[in-house]
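Appendix B, example 12.
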Amino acid sequence: MIVLREYKRGNETYYKLHLIDETGKDTAINEYYCKSASKEVDGKTYWILFDSNMRVIETAFDFLNYHRIDELKPNTKKQHMQALKLLFCYQDMIKKDLRKFSQDEFTRFKAFLKGISISGAVFSFELKTRRGPETINNYLLAYRDYFNFLGCTNHFLHDVTTKNFAITINDVNVHVTKDIQKHNEKKPKEVIEVPRYISVDEMNRILTVIRKDYTRRDELIVRIMYESGLRIGEVLGSKLYYIILRQKGKGF
């Protein structure tokens, strides 16, 4: 079995391939890393990436330092650099360019980016650094930008799906078509914990405000919701609500 393991050396991440034979003997057979550096010259910061043989990756240098120089902020460039470090390291390990990845290979690459440890019969990942959906999507965006810079593409990296939806602008329904990256990670929806109920004291304070600034009809609606557990839509759609409305001219 071949196992890819993640290690740390200072702030740098590197990987080793280990060969485990039938007897359980564990032998490190190769080491992979992509180092980064920055250098300031005449007030300008240059970002540099080195491969496992400490050779400057020229396409990455040109991309990080000369592509969209007036658009990308330093933090974005730093994130692009981190994304490219992982890409070059992974390509070196599997001896294949991302442009030629099949769907299964692209899926495994995304698992590598996420930091998911995978156990297989022949090949396994033992990774430590976990990355969330937002980071993964930013890395995929960096790869698309890098490939656009090179004038090339990968079908799965650039694959989009079209979604149609409607929005209302000045009371006019407008149909909008938007291309969405098919292989981006979905961000988990924010979970908002709603209290199960309000206390009697809180209800009394609400009624005090209503009695001061609103009508008896409003008070009745709130009391129906509180005492029966109905939601506002259920109250507004009930026969009781219309009875209350009819009473509006009788003191409500």
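The chain has two domains: 2-151, 200-250. The mean pLDDT is 82.
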